[in-house]
Write a structure and sequence with these properties.
By secondary structure, the chain is α+β, with helices and mostly antiparallel strands. It has one domain: Beta Polymerase, domain 2 (2-Layer Sandwich), CATH 3.30.460.10. The protein has four helices and five strands. The protein has a five-stranded mixed β-sheet with strand order 3-2-1-4-5, with helices on both faces. The longest helix is centred in the first third of the chain and has 14 residues, at 5-18. The two termini are 23 Å apart. InterPro entries: NT_sf, Polbeta, Type-VII_TA_antitoxin. This is Nucleotidyltransferase domain protein. GO terms for molecular function: ATP binding; metal ion binding; nucleotidyltransferase activity. Residues 10-79 form the Polymerase beta nucleotidyltransferase domain. Keywords: ATP-binding, Magnesium, Metal-binding, Nucleotide-binding, Nucleotidyltransferase, Transferase.
Amino acid sequence: MVYTIEEIKEKIQPIAEKYELPVVYLFGSYARNEADEDSDIDLAISVKNLDITGFELLDLEDEVKSQFNIPVDFLIVEDIEMGKSPIALQVKKNFEQEKVRLYETGTVRKRLLFS
């Protein structure tokens, strides 16, 4: 199954709110509108200023993966930004070029963004 970006946003919003995530990005083939039946969903979440344990992060990942019938890969935004190896730099470059903001905590309220 191939999801639309809007379908992904709708599934991500309640989970992002539950875990009080500052921001969630989509990148990769789905962000480029090149997804096909063999594509996975690539998500990057920010944990900046977030009090979350490793176990809670695993719960979050499991909860997101349970919403989709295809593989979901997770990256942490702060890890992407700190990468210095050639592979990490390529991931960072691709992420910066492709990222689509799915969710961001607002200053007054949390909202679903339609980037």
